[in-house]
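To the wet lab folks,

You asked to see what we're planning to order before we commit. Fair enough. Below is the target structure as tokens, and below that is the sequence we designed to fit it. If anything looks off to you, flag it before the synthesis order goes out.
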């Protein structure tokens, strides 16, 4: 079945890894990959079966991505990994603001001694 699927993926010109963008040259090296993390989503079942959320990747690229674990989205980790949606940008901005405030408070308390 995988050979047949790979044949048609290659015929359609879709045999490129969604992670590294390099050509997938054999069915043994191909895996199906979810573009967005479905496990930590609000509606995991819908996102798991959403055909627009599925692409192909090298098996190795997919395994590496899962080895480090997918982070919840939206969130600071997603921002650090490159997401620039409005919610991730807002979370990152709030974090920077909190760090600046903490730094100023620490400087104030250290200066009073």
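Sequence we intend to order:
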């Amino acid at each position: 079945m995988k050979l047949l699927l790979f044949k048609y993926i290659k015929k359609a010109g879709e045999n490129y890894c969604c992670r590294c963008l390099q050509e997938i040259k054999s069915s043994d090296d191909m895996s199906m990959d979810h573009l967005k993390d479905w496990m930590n989503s609000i509606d995991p079942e819908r996102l798991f079966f959403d055909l627009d959320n599925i692409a192909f990747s090298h098996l190795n690229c997919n395994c590496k991505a899962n080895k480090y674990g997918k982070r919840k989205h939206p969130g600071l980790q997603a921002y650090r990994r490159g997401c620039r949606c409005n919610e991730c940008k807002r979370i990152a901005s709030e974090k920077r603001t909190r760090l600046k405030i903490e730094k100023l408070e620490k400087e104030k308390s250290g200066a009073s001694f």
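Structural context that might help your review: The beta strands are 30-34, 54-58. Helices lie at 2-11, 44-49, 59-67, 76-80, 86-111.

Thanks,
Computational group
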